[in-house]
Design goal:
836 residues, 5 helices, 4% helix, elongated
Length: 836
């Protein structure tokens, strides 16, 4: 019996600590946050150091002309919250004092910029202008984060298909970002990274406020925003404010570009091909370098529709890639195809002789299989093998062919920003990517490995993201903002042989089926030979959706800035992909035990090919998508946070989040599945008399405190410390996508030196159980993954202590200690495993 895996909330402690020293310049800032907007705070004083109450502070967006105005309170304090990222000018004026204007003030998402001002005595008509943007200390927040702005993205070398995520390598604590999964599976080419030792699946990205995650592959951002469309990226890596939730190791906020009062745009093309590359050291002289063409091109344009009111920004990004590289494969020689093994090492034994355990078998005379014993279906199948073209009679790597994956990908992005009044702003964003990618199988319709490392099939993917956001000033000290977001991925991947029931045409029973998604060449696996057919994960049909709603209310009163909020995320997953086992078309495997001498012989590749010619398989399998794999998940979060400016040097932040992750359900009112090892039953939620939760409960005690302090020692040094908890937001649709009985793989596997099926017997006629009672027995030859009866979400504790100092030449240096501690992260627990 194979292992029955219980997917459990098993306790796991992963402490991580590090010391870091950073030097920063304006390109990559050492700040932190999660929400879309930034803040500006400060104190207005006179030359003696006394505060100036009632001073007027005017904030003007340099590119759009929009303005905000406030006055200082009795403590000389002012604050602007919910400020869109961008460059601003600030004007400070009070009766009896000269006016001060500060220009080139940069605001980034979820950051707080401090602009303290001293007003000189004089006439208001006299103006003192302070020009130039200097590197700023992080004076009012205790978190650790980095900001990557558009200048960095467009000016610095970008790897990974010119992906902005490659600059996450510059974030302290991040491992080098790397491509994951195949180009067919993920044509957006998202990069994955681990931050501060955390799980890559808990790095959650929001694009203009909309959650963007590949529900099935949550270590991927759902929509990889083109680099020319990125305004700023904020990567929060620890001890964030209470606004930041539903993210584990990091929270990544991406804001796309907006239009301004000036029409501006760009056009670009990046080209690379094999002629611009050096010859591979091992490539034979006189041969052509493999084809490798990469083109990335596009354009952007933005400007006003109504000056100071309505703005647009449009962008297009296209990628065309063709790659080719040689690879080696192993095919049978003409002699082997005829059953003649006289010229190879090892002996072939007649499986029709001897005992059941393989002992006492008689060798084939002359190490040749008689023609009369050769299976007619095997003879048809092997005609799809090409003749060896390298290495003479070499046993392995005797066939070479060139090819590689293609990628045709396009992005279109559009954004509108509207300033309805001084109290109301609205924005809308839409982005769409569509791509065709994949490759060709080495044996054509007979499948096999993809040429040049490509997948042997073609994928069509469409990803969309849409966001609608607003900010409403209810009163001078009360501001409401909110975001509605939606993202969707539609994907199909079809193998090269899709649409034809080759297995049934060959006469192999139960291969293929009435559903066209079961069509194709049968999967044939012969030990140490390149097999036929497509990978088990093909074909696939996926639809994933995520909905986001966030609402926040900010109230300022004297030294306190209090913020309340609510977050909602809804994930949908609908997948047809019976990849457990060997796939839906049917599989026959040949390991060679049928023609080896038992009970202790060691079969080699020639025994395996001999078993294939005899049509004796030791592994016959077929997978069935018995129930469509679906997932329906809610995620909720509520928070309250107070940022208290205790005095002119000290800011303390106190916050508390409460998050709720209800149990995942299936579509059509059904629940998830639970395996009970005490009786070997699988309980199907919402079927028969089984309750929707199938006896599984979730924690309702997910409280996440946040605390931070920032102390300013003059205007050049800040000491910060913070602590926070983030709960693991991983969609359960990921680990619970396709297990029994959603996907059923029936496998007839022989033990010892026997066989389990023949070509004439075919593969199992896989069927599913009766679901009417909601209780089914787990068969003895399948794997199962199930939650325990109680699910406690894993969480990450993070803390830091940092000293930051401003140096000459506009440099800022920081030395800090950052720690993370992961607890209760999900892990597979094999209940069949014995004690060590």
């Amino acid at each position: 019996m194979q292992a029955n895996n219980a997917y459990s909330a098993r306790r796991r402690l992963v402490p991580v600590g590090m010391f870091a020293i950073f030097l920063s310049v304006p390109a990559v800032h050492s700040v932190k946050g999660q929400v879309l907007y930034g803040s500006l705070v400060g104190t207005v004083a006179d030359p003696s150091g006394s505060v100036v109450p009632g001073a007027t502070v005017l904030l003007t967006a340099k590119q759009t002309g929009t303005t905000k105005e406030t006055t200082t309170d009795d403590g000389g304090r002012y604050s602007f919250v919910n400020v869109l990222p961008g460059q601003y000018e600030m004007k400070f004026s009070a009766k009896g004092f000269k006016t001060v204007v500060k220009t080139d003030i940069e605001v980034t998402p979820s950051s707080i910029g401090r602009q303290d001002v001293t007003l000189d005595v004089g006439e208001m008509t006299d103006t003192i202008t302070v020009e130039g943007a200097a590197a700023e200390l992080q004076t009012d927040k205790a978190d650790t984060h980095s900001v990557i702005d558009s200048k960095s993205i467009t000016s610095m070398p970008l790897g990974g298909y010119r992906n902005y995520q490659s600059l996450i390598n510059l974030v302290p604590g991040a491992t080098p970002a790397a491509l994951q999964n195949s180009i067919t599976d993920t044509p957006g080419r998202a990069l994955a990274t681990n931050i501060n030792g955390g799980n890559a699946q808990t790095n959650i990205t929001r694009i203009d406020g909309a959650t963007s995650v590949n529900v099935w592959l949550p270590h991927h951002v759902g929509y990889v925003t083109p680099e020319e469309n990125v305004e700023v990226v904020n990567i929060t890596t620890g001890a964030g404010d209470a606004e930041q939730g539903m993210a584990g190791s990091s929270s990544i906020t991406l804001v796309t570009k907006s239009g301004t009062n000036t029409i501006h745009g760009s056009a670009f093309e990046f080209h690379d091909d094999q002629h611009l590359k050096a010859r591979n050291f091992f490539q034979a002289a006189g041969t052509d370098k493999p084809l490798s063409i990469y083109n990335n091109y596009g354009a952007t344009i933005g400007g006003p529709i109504l000056k100071n009111k309505l703005f647009y920004f449009l962008s297009f990004d296209g990628t065309k890639q063709r790659q080719s590289s040689p690879a080696f494969y192993t095919v049978p020689t003409a002699a082997l195809k005829a059953g003649d093994f006289s010229g190879v090492s090892g002996t072939l034994y007649d499986p029709a002789t001897g005992a059941a355990d393989g002992s006492g078998r008689t060798a084939f005379a002359g190490n040749k299989i008689p023609d009369s014993r050769l299976d007619p279906i095997a003879l048809k199948l092997q005609t799809y093998y090409p003749a060896p073209n390298v290495g003479g009679a070499a046993a392995v790597n005797n066939y070479t062919a060139s090819g590689g994956p293609i990628l045709n990908r396009n992005y279109v992005d559009a954004k509108l920003n509207y300033t309805a009044s001084s109290k109301q702003t609205v924005f809308a964003k839409y982005g769409r990517m569509w791509a065709t990618s994949g490759g060709i199988a080495v044996f054509g319709v007979a499948g096999g490995l993809g040429l040049g490392g490509a997948d042997p099939g073609q994928g069509d993917t469409t990803i969309q993201v849409a966001t609608l956001g607003h900010t409403r000033t209810i009163s001078p000290n009360l501001i409401l903002d909110g975001v509605l977001g939606y993202s969707r991925q539609d994907q199909s991947v079809l193998p090269n042989d899709f649409g034809t029931n080759y297995g049934l045409q060959f006469g192999i029973p139960n291969t293929n089926g009435p559903d066209i998604r079961q069509s194709g060449f049968p999967n044939i696996g012969i030990t140490n030979y390149t097999g036929f057919g497509a990978p088990a994960w093909m074909p696939l049909f996926r639809v994933e959706e995520s909905y986001t709603q966030s609402d926040n209310l900010t109230w300022t009163k004297g030294a306190h800035e209090v913020r309340f909020g609510f977050d909602l995320v809804r994930h949908h997953l609908n997948h047809w992909q019976p990849e457990i086992g060997q796939g839906p078309r049917g599989y026959l495997g040949f390991s060679g035990q049928e023609t080896a001498l038992g009970p202790s012989g060691t079969p080699n590749q020639f025994n395996a090919y001999g078993a294939f010619l005899l049509g004796l398989s030791d592994s016959a399998q077929k997978s069935l998508q018995y129930i469509l794999s679906t997932g329906r998940e809610w995620q909720f979060g509520w928070y309250a946070r107070d940022r208290w400016q205790v005095n002119r040097n000290l800011t303390i932040t106190l916050g508390l989040r409460y998050e709720l992750y209800p149990l995942m359900t299936r579509a059509a009112g059904k629940g998830i599945e639970r395996y009970d090892p005490s009786n070997n039953n699988v309980y199907l939620g919402g079927r028969g008399n089984v309750p929707e939760n199938a006896g599984i409960s979730v924690s309702h005690k997910l409280f996440a405190p946040r605390v931070g302090a920032a102390y300013r020692m003059g205007d050049k040094t800040v000491i910060r410390a913070g602590y926070g908890i983030n709960f693991d937001p991983i969609p359960f649709s990921r680990p619970l996508r396709g297990w029994y009985p959603l996907v059923i793989n029936q496998a007839n596997i022989a033990s010892g030196f026997g066989w389990s099926s023949t070509f004439s017997q075919g593969v199992p006629n896989t069927t599913g159980p009766d679901l009417s009672t909601g209780i089914v027995q787990l068969p003895p030859n399948v794997d199962e993954r199930s939650p325990n009866s109680f699910i406690h979400r894993g969480y990450v504790q993070s803390w830091n202590a940092t000293v930051e100092r401003k140096l000459p030449l506009d440099l800022i240096t920081s030395i800090g200690y950052v720690g993370t501690h992961s607890v209760h992260l999900l892990a597979d627990y094999d209940i069949n495993a014995g004690s060590p």
